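Hi F.,

I've been meaning to write this up properly since the lab meeting, where we talked about keeping a consistent format for the predictions we share between groups. The idea is simple: the sequence comes first, exactly as it goes in, then the C-alpha cells exactly as they come out, then a line or two of notes. No screenshots and no reformatting. I'm using this chain as the first example so we have something concrete to point to.
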Amino acid sequence: MQDNPQALLPKPQLPIVPLPGSRPLSNARHEHYCRLLSLLWPKGQALREAGMRAVKNHDAVSNATLLERRQDVRDRIAFLVRQEEEVLAEKRKRIEETLWAIHEANIADLFETYSTIKRDHTGQPERTDEGALSTETRERPKLLTDLPPETARLIEDIVIDSKGRAIPKLYSKLQANKELRAMLNISAKEAPRDVTQLSDAELIQQLADQAKELGIEIDLNYRFAQKSDE
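Output, unedited:
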C-alpha cells in the first residue's frame, strides 16, 4: 500500500483573525481618545485631552459623538473597556486570595522544634541520674530564607530578640477578616424577622405603621382569640 503523497504536505493554516478593536488605531489621537474614554473620562474632556480641540464644550461633545460613529473607534473602545474589566477582575481575585491566605495563616508554620542540652538556673548542664546529659525540646523561628515564598509573604514585620533571632509577625487576621467581609459584601446586620416570628403586639404595630404610610385609616382595637382547651 502506497502512502498518500497529499498526506505528507503541510496542512494549510487558517488565517488568524484579530478580535475587533484588539489592535491600536493608526490615528494616534483617535487611539488616545479611546483609551481615555475606556477610563470613564467625559467625552468632551477626552476629546480635548487627545488633541482634538473644540471651541466650546458642547462642540467637543458633538465632535466626540461623531467620532464614535466610526466602527473602528467603537470597536476599540469596547475592546479596551473589556480588557480593563478583565484586569480589574484578575486584580480582585489576587487580592482576595491574599486576604484568605492571611486569614488562614498558621503561626506554627514559621517555627520549628529542636533539641538542646537542659541547663539549670546557673547555666550549667543538667545530668540524669545515670550521668548522661539531659536534653529538652524548644522552639525557635525558622530561618527566613528557609520559608516557602507563599509563607514568607504573609509576614508583616520582623522583631529581633535578645538572642539575635528574627521573630516574625503575621499580618492581622482581624483586618483580613474585615477586608474580606467588605469585599464579599457580607453584612453583619441581623436579617429581618419573618412575620411568623413577631409577637401579637409587634404584628399589630407593623400593620398600623404600614397603614399610616399608605394613608389608610384602620381600626386595630381588637385582640387575638385564644384557642380553647375543650
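Notes:
Strands lie at 111-117, 135-141, 155-160, 166-170.
The mean pLDDT is 81.

If this format works for you, I'll send the rest the same way.

G.
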